[in-house]
Write a structure and sequence with these properties.
Order of helices and strands: EHEEEEHEEE
Strand order of the largest sheet: 1-4-3-2
Strand content: 35-45%
Number of domains: 1
Number of strands: 8
Oligomer: single chain
CATH class: Alpha Beta
Shape: globular
Structural class: alpha/beta
Organism: Salipaludibacillus neizhouensis
CATH architecture: Roll
InterPro entries: Glyas_Bleomycin-R_OHBP_Dase (IPR029068), Glyas_Fos-R_dOase_dom (IPR004360)
Protein name: Glyoxalase
CATH topology: 2,3-Dihydroxybiphenyl 1,2-Dioxygenase, domain 1
Radius of gyration: 15 Å
């Protein structure tokens, strides 16, 4: 993981704290704090806070315009995450695929859906200069 001199923070809704903790811990995220209305995770070096708000859950998840995730710069770490998701039988929104095949921005990607229908994208660019 990268140095934590700056940590990105993302807050998302959840419908059930126990389901949320179970999902994110299976993904390898560390539970940092738990309160009656939210849980905070170390999400691959950044902070994700899932606020209990069952009225704000998307009934049908859509990739665009709202999703978040991780862009790996190490292919082995990407593959480890993919295997973990498969081994833990986490729900895929979209199986692994190649985007922009043959172009400089070609990358591997897959999407998971958490218990509150938040979409998580995981990707790896073959050319690291295309990450940003």
């Amino acid at each position: 993981m990268r140095d934590k001199n700056k940590v990105f923070h993302l807050a998302i809704p959840c419908k059930n704290l126990d389901e949320t903790v179970n999902f994110y811990e299976k993904l390898g995220c560390k539970l940092a704090r738990r309160y009656q209305d939210r849980v905070t995770f170390d999400f691959f070096g950044d902070q994700v806070v899932c606020h209990l708000n069952p009225d704000e859950i998307d009934e049908i998840p859509k990739m665009y315009p709202r999703h978040s995730g991780i862009t790996f710069t190490n292919k082995g770490e990407y593959e480890t995450c993919l295997r973990l998701a498969m081994d833990e039988e986490l729900p895929f929104f979209q199986e692994e695929m190649v985007r922009f095949k043959g172009k400089p921005e070609e990358h591997l990607t897959f999407f998971l859906v958490d218990p509150a229908n938040n979409l998580l994208e995981f990707k790896y660019y073959h050319d690291i200069t295309m990450v940003y």
